[in-house]
Amino acid sequence: MTHGRANILLLAAGAIWGLGFVAQSSAMDSVEPFMFITLRFLLAVLTVTPLAIREAKAAPKKLSHSDYFGFAVIGLMLFAGAALQQIGMQTTSVTNAGFLTGLYVVMVPFLAVLLFWQWPHPVVWPCALTALAGIYLLSGGLLEGLTTGDWLIVACAVFWALQIIFINRIAANNGRPIMLSLVQFAVCAVLGFIVTLGTERTELFSIIAAAPEILFAGIISSGIAFTLQAVGQRFTTAPQAAIMLSSEALFAALFGALMLGERMSLQGATGCALIFIAMITVELIPALRSRAEVKP
């Protein structure tokens, strides 16, 4: 597969995730957050299981118990991020959720410093300030203008960042990305079900009412899009992949406007633009510099 086709797959994943924000938001009119998470990731498990079995048959060696334990730990991070995001979607817009979730791109290097003393490229620091300025404008010039949902989405971005970091440290070298997805999804489905039993009231008619959104989020947004990501990232560079996938923020804003009638002020749009510029720059500049350094 060429770089161009791989990037098209990643762009498609970003578009699906952008539309997924609309499904997540609409589903909250009918079902509780953790029931949505349970059903979403149960469907995702069913979607990727045949692919994981095929991957296992083609793998040169079996995974160890420590591999599965690492996958489960990453699944805990995915669950925390998904839970915070889903609850936050109840009190924020699809557009805000898309851009604030994308802050994980800037958070990754900061957390790498805090956890592993791994210092990032210097461009990270101005990008972080740019992203913070974008959040400030997105809030309307007052941090209290951010809703509780907005802050929950920012918190979920922390767990997305942690997930990326630990995937690189735990799961990058075993060559089993689809099995990783399967274990992550299973962990999320089980934990979501446990929380649902203890905290939420579930009624069948509510699930039926949200069935289209649940089916989209489970099969397409989770199962198919994560598979597109896993395949596409094998044939392109990490910076290119991050840039293509971060397009989910733009697609979230587009679909939010087209399907939910969301509108944004000029100040808010400027804030979103700053966040997106920070997300792109933090990946693109280091990649360009590395490429320049390897040239004779």
UniProtKB/TrEMBL annotation:
GO cellular component, one term: plasma membrane
InterPro entries the record matches: Diverse_Substrate_Transporter (IPR051258), EamA_dom (IPR000620), EmrE-like (IPR037185)
Cited Pfam families: EamA
Compartments in which it is found: Cell membrane
Superkingdom as given in the UniProt entry: Bacteria
Membrane topology label: Multi-pass membrane protein
Domain EamA: 6-139, 148-281
Descriptive protein name: EamA family transporter
